[in-house]
Write a structure and sequence with these properties.
It comes from Enterococcus aquimarinus. With about 140 residues, the protein is an alpha+beta fold. It has a 5-stranded antiparallel β-sheet, with helices on one face. The chain has one domain (about 5-115): HIT-like (HIT family, subunit A), CATH 3.30.428. About 25% of the residues lie in helices and about 20% in strands. About 15% of the residues are buried.
Length: about 140
């Protein structure tokens, strides 16, 4: 895509700090470095978000995650955890509209990074849960 910063990075038109590259994906350090080693894994094929993936691209992209995650773990013996995040669409905090996966190394609870899932257990009835599951399951193709 012509004005996509990640396509330009993949094409080496914009410099980056490479971690891993093969025919399908490119992994490089996120310029913002939320924590040291914060890495982005991007498919070389331009797709806006997860909704544009086909099975082949998903397999090629997501199968590389463990390889890059293990490299981060090996590079940082003090690593205490790793968040893997894929934001899709603006409301879900996507800011670059070339699909990408964040690998955010975690060292301490004081890292400048947080995710919060509220506890909503019991707010939906068993019937509401069944209806929700069925609504989604009917769309799986």
């Amino acid at each position: 895509m012509e004005n996509c910063i990640f396509c330009k990075i993949i094409a080496k038109e914009i410099p980056s700090y490479p971690i891993y590259e093969d025919e399908d994906v490119y992994a490089f350090l996120d310029i913002s470095q939320t924590t040291p080693g914060h890495t982005l894994l991007v498919p070389k094929k331009h797709v806006s978000d997860i909704f544009d993936y086909d099975e082949t691209l998903a397999s090629a992209t997501f199968s590389r995650l463990p390889k890059v995650a293990r490299a981060i773990e090996s590079a940082f013996p003090e690593l205490a955890g790793l968040n893997i995040i894929n934001n899709n669409k603006e409301l879900a905090y996507q800011t670059v509209f070339h699909s990408h996966i964040h690998l955010v190394p975690r060292f301490t609870k004081a890292d400048d990074f947080a995710i919060h899932f509220g506890n909503h257990t019991g707010k939906a009835t068993a019937q509401e849960m069944t209806d929700l599951a069925q609504k989604i399951a009917e769309q799986v193709k």
